[in-house]
């Protein structure tokens, strides 16, 4: 079965469960998420997790909001039992609340990125808080709760948080000089550029510009929602062959009838699929983030962070 056939089959199975009230772009992105992570969609398990969430979360909890399909799917691809996965996510969110994180959708998304080992939580939360504080020194008003997931994700990486925040600021300013538009998406892109190193690398901005302009020439959208993915491509220092593969994969997926009106949804999927065979731990961890960027964008317009619940699974399989 081809990748496109797998995407279509998974989409049809998901749509049956999600119904017609969920935006088609969400279902398409979720289908790509499962296929990229090489996980078979299991309707019974999905419904079991969904039911546990609805029974465990309050009526106004973000877990029961328009992001519900996202939370269910990210827990679904984990290796935990349905009830255990839901309870652990809620426990992580409560730990964040106790550590004075403001409770909203971003807090739960940050919780998805925390390790399952409870002993690591205090350190993870402390590093995320410190990175947020360091980021605010440069972008006081732009840095807010929507940065929680990225702060949790990047805070766990090696390197000094103050240096990483300073590097982010340099990237942000330099990218604006190359006609990347300022705002949340550019801030997230500048954060992504520190993914493989907290040290400033002047070549990364040039890489990002070349990638953006290259995508434009083949008529792939490079507006603000695509900034974080462009950032990943630059940070991972993808070569010409890898970038060409992403474009080829994108064109194949975008040509499907399912994507007729939603071609922009094909780029995160193409990125994840093209990196799937990589043995680089950075690349394998990025897959989970990249494949759900479009999903989250559609679920909440101002949001361009990602789920990383499956990162440990993807990373471990990539290093075997």
TrEMBL record:
<protein>
    <submittedName>
        <fullName>DUF4003 family protein</fullName>
    </submittedName>
</protein>
<dbReference type="InterPro" id="IPR025062">
    <property type="entry name" value="DUF4003"/>
</dbReference>
<dbReference type="Pfam" id="PF13170">
    <property type="entry name" value="DUF4003"/>
</dbReference>
């Amino acid at each position: 079965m081809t990748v496109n056939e797998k995407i279509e089959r998974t989409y049809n199975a998901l749509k049956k469960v999600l119904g017609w009230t969920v935006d088609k772009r969400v279902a398409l992105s979720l289908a790509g998420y499962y296929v990229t992570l090489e996980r078979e969609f299991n309707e019974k398990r999905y419904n079991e997790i969904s039911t546990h969430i609805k029974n465990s979360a309050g009526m106004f909890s973000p877990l029961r909001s328009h992001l519900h399909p996202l939370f269910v799917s990210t827990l679904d691809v984990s290796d935990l039992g349905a009830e255990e996965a839901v309870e652990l996510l809620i426990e992580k969110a409560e730990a964040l609340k106790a550590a004075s994180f403001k409770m909203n959708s971003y807090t739960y998304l940050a919780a998805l990125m925390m390790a399952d080992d409870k002993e690591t939580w205090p350190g993870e939360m402390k590093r995320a808080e410190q990175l947020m504080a360091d980021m605010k020194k440069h972008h006081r008003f732009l840095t807010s709760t929507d940065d929680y997931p990225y702060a949790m994700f990047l805070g766990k990486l090696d390197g000094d948080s103050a240096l990483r925040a300073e590097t982010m600021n340099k990237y942000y300013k330099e990218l604006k000089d190359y006609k990347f538009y300022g705002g949340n998406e550019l801030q997230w892109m500048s954060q992504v550029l520190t993914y493989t190193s907290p040290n400033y690398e002047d070549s990364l901005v040039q890489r990002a510009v070349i990638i953006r302009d290259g995508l434009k020439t083949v008529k792939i959208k490079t507006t603000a929602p695509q900034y974080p993915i462009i950032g990943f491509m630059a940070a991972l220092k993808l070569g010409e062959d890898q970038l060409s593969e992403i474009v080829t994969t994108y064109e194949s997926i975008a040509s499907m009838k399912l994507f007729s009106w939603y071609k922009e949804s094909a780029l995160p999927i193409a990125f994840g699929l093209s990196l799937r065979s990589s043995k680089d731990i950075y690349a394998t961890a990025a897959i989970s983030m990249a494949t759900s960027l479009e999903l989250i964008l559609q679920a909440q317009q101002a949001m361009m962070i990602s789920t990383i619940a499956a990162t440990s699974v993807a990373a471990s399989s990539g290093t075997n």
